[in-house]
Amino acid sequence: MDALAAALTGRLVRAEDDDYDAARALWNGVTERRPAAIVRCATTEDVRRTVLLAAEHHLLVAVRGGGHNVAGTAGVDGGLVIDLGEMRDVSVDPGARLARVAGGARLGDLDAASQEHGLATPAGVFSDTGLGGLGLTGGIGWLRRRFGLTCDNIVGATIVAADGSVHHVDEESDPELLWGLRGGGGNLGVVTEFVVRLHPVGPEVYAGFVVHRAERAMEVLHAYRDWSADLPDEVSSMAVLGAAPEDDAIPAELTGQPCVIVLACVTDPARGPELLAPIRDLPDPAADLSGPMPYVELQQIFDADYPNGMRYYWRSVHLPELSEEALRRAVDQTYRRPSALSTIDLWHMGGAMSRVAPEDTAFGDRSAPYLVGIEANWTDPGDDEANVRWARACAADLDDLSTGREYLNFPGFQEGGQATLRAAHGEANYARLRALKQRMDPDNLFRLHQNVAP
Ligand SMILES: Cc1cc2nc3c(=O)[nH]c(=O)nc-3n(C[C@H](O)[C@H](O)[C@H](O)COP(=O)(O)OP(=O)(O)OC[C@H]3O[C@@H](n4cnc5c(N)ncnc54)[C@H](O)[C@@H]3O)c2cc1C
């Protein structure tokens, strides 16, 4: 360890260091970990040296991108964390519509740099998430129906394999490895730089934000189902069953009360009013905050809702349709939640993301038109069991109506294990990922994040 510490451009943080607790802290307070050391890498060479040391001494290794994995896979008790949090540079080539993004960059870093040129890549809806974990495992956000999943837009990478070798990957040099990085998770090595495709977006988009009281939930969801069934790719939306947020435009007596919110992003702001009319014209909304908004701002609207260190457990199921029974169960389950911070989110999928064939990326099948995100969010450690039980019960309740696939970025504590992974990737993709794993990491050094065993 001392030799590694001396050789690093970055810094090794150990338990006796003042900043150890800050360095090991993860977004999800439920997933506390105490690593032997955290290597704050600053360069690909730092990563390479750390990987070699870990492999030589058979250390358990966690890789940390943005540190926001729900299952806490960016930490490890007693092992070594390869922390990419110092590596957040983004450089944009507007002519080529490409960005080079360091392996620890947050979505906010990428959005800010690419929006300077009126460009963006599809990512998630929370700006502090790491591109690394989100993009390697899929990535669904406000541009998913227009420009696909985040992983569909990864066109190159620099990756350090378990033997310390450094690979520069693109469609020409290594199409199979690039295929694996599009949805294969943290299995294949440490990505120190991504190259992502950018698209013209913004600076303004049209944001939909319509709030109704929970008594109207079924009526609003019926309208949402009818509206979303026939939308152009320009609109990505979701219906959130939860509580009304605090906002000047929302009646104060509604704050924290059960409600349903329809949220949307229309990439062409001029078409926003027309495309959102069927949802906005529903009678008697509690509030309608819809309007043009800078894309960068839309990417940050949830930032205050998910503070670091709070307690979280998230699951998901894909639905082939918003059947009456599915909607009824979702509504019933939501308003039984033990924490008013928890939500059930109906994401409308389809569009560009669904036109990529299952075998074209490691991500797998995208045919389900709706994803149900089940978010248990709470504050008191004494409530852990009740909240986790609630989210598991919701997933179980919807299971017989679902496609049987979960979204691997909303993985609970990864307790679904191999069965969940195989179902998500599909058997043929799983076999291909396994072959790649044998090539890049035959001794399974990188095994904490949704592990495809070699
Ligand atoms: C508040 C919040 C909102 C979210 N919203 C969305 C959303 O809108 N859409 C969506 O799709 N997902 C969303 N997610 C889920 C998110 O995609 C996952 O939690 C993801 O794992 C976060 O990535 P990270 O890099 O921050 O996490 P980390 O915990 O740092 O990484 C997770 C794992 O990914 C791997 N990894 C990360 N970076 C690298 C790298 N550079 N090289 C190799 N492996 C790496 C590692 O194995 C690591 O353990 C959200 C999560 C949060 C916390």
Task: Explain what you see.
This protein has 454 residues and is an alpha+beta fold. It folds into 3 domains: 2-83, 2-Layer Sandwich (Uridine Diphospho-n-acetylenolpyruvylglucosamine Reductase, domain 2); 90-201 and 431-440, Uridine Diphospho-n-acetylenolpyruvylglucosamine Reductase, domain 3; 204-399, 3-Layer(aba) Sandwich (Vanillyl-alcohol Oxidase, Chain A, domain 3), CATH 3.40.462. The chain has 14 helices and 19 strands. It has helices spanning 2-7, 20-24, 44-56, 107-115, 131-137, 144-147, 175-181, 217-228, 272-280, 295-298, 324-334, 384-399, 417-425, 427-440; strands at residues 11-14, 37-40, 61-64, 80-83, 90-93, 98-102, 119-120, 154-160, 166-170, 190-197, 199-200, 204-213, 235-243, 258-266, 287-288, 291-294, 311-319, 343-348, 370-378. The strands form 4 sheets. Strands 12, 13, 14, 15, 16, 17, 18 and 19 form an 8-stranded antiparallel beta sheet that branches. The radius of gyration is 21 Å and the shape is globular. It binds flavin-adenine dinucleotide. Flavin-adenine dinucleotide binds at residues 27, 62-70, 73-74, 84, 103, 124-126, 129-130, 132-134, 136, 138-141, 186, 190-191, 306, 409, 448-449. GO terms for molecular function: FAD binding; oxidoreductase activity. Its cofactor is FAD. Keywords: FAD, Flavoprotein, Oxidoreductase. It comes from Isoptericola sediminis.
